[in-house]
Design a protein that fits this description.
Elements (H helix, E strand, L loop, with lengths): L16 E3 L4 E4 L11 H6 L4 E3 L5 E3 L6 E4 L2 E2 L4 H9 L6 E7 L14 E6 L6 E12 L3 E13 L2 E25 L5 E27 L4 E25 L5 E27 L5 E24 L5 E7 L2 E16 L2 E23 L4 E3 L5 E20 L2 E19 L7 E17 L1
Parallel strand pairs: 5-8
Antiparallel strand pairs: 1-2, 2-7, 3-4, 5-6, 7-8, 9-10, 10-11, 11-12, 12-13, 13-14, 14-15, 15-16, 15-17, 16-18, 17-18, 18-19, 18-20, 20-21, 21-22
Length: 435
Amino acid sequence: ESAVLGNVNVTAKKPFVQFAPDKTVINVEAGIGNAGSSIMDVLEKSPGITVGRDGNISMKGKPQVMVLIDGKQTQLSGADLQAYLSGISASQIDVIELIDHPGAKYDAAGNAGIINIKTKKLKQKGFNGSLGLGIGQGFYFKSNNSLNLNYRNGRVNVFMNYGNRLGTEMMEMFALRKYFDQAGNDSLYLSQPNFNRTRIRAHNIKTGIDFFASDRTTIGLSFSGIFNDRHTKSYSTIDWMSPASVIDSTINTWGTRESRFRRAGVNFSLRHVFPNKDELSADIDGIHFDIRGGQFFETRLSAPGSVVEATRGNIPSTLEIVTAKIDYSKRFNEWIWESGFKTAGTKTDNLADYFFNDGQNWFDDLSRSNHFLYKEHIHALYSSIGFDKGKWQWQAGLRYEATSYQANQLGNAVVKDSSFRRNYGSLFPTALISF
């Protein structure tokens, strides 16, 4: 006797965190609290990750972590990296890989740890997409939205991911310092409240086309762009007081900071899988950064003979990066061998113009102003072999990097010119074993 079942739905749910021998995987959509969040918000809640006030990211206590987007370096750090990741909606992200033991395949600069952020890419045939809208209300309103579109027909796949982050953030702090005399008694108090408000307007887009030349060969071309504007106003007061809280003098500081961040990148990729499952991949990337920063601060001392001091600065910088790499992997049952070559060229132009005001006129602050030019080329070759069977996994590899750079610090009437250059090569062995 037989029976026919009706519709059967099989549902699987990924856990928010998955642990592997060499990395931790964060499945962003599995965390319900990630709705309406940014990548930076997700990282702050990830195990082993610490984000400092200056925007620097540490992994298990180790600073100088390298951050990748779809395997490509962001080439940013500190406040610039924080602004970049804060402008990308979590709804555009598939998974985040926390690699605390990078192998020889990765650049030596990431030996403190690597965070690889993988964006979503829909694979269903035909036209499909998703729209995500997120709003929040704290002290101020914020909005985090995304749109993912995909069209796949025959041998062509076209995709577009767009996201924005609009809103205002605030930070309020209060510090009270006590000073003691030689007898240990209170002699002086310093009270310092501080208030910051930042308006954020961030937009990002990634669009491209994949052409499936055959069942084993895929050719891709994509463009990505980031537009991030931040406007910060701050106010701070410093009150010098006696132990009886009688104010002796007050310093008031008003400040504004402007930051305009632009990033455009083009990627050409090729991937081929051989009949024996060997894999060959190649990538060429060109990235351009345009960062503009401005700041203005005014300080007023409320005391007999008080003065007004003001400073302002203009801090533009540009960064151009071109990279090319090729990777090959081959499997022998439980063994896998990987090898590859990468070359990268970087060109940086950083200008910092500062001015000060004596209460009446503006003057060049030549002791703080500078103009820095930097060029760098890195050529790398690596090879590694790994074994994975049952509960055992081990990997060993060796990477060689040849680096050359040239830097010029342009001077002015106060600061002298300076320049330096260097050429060197380094070997970086790696090893990992786990049970």
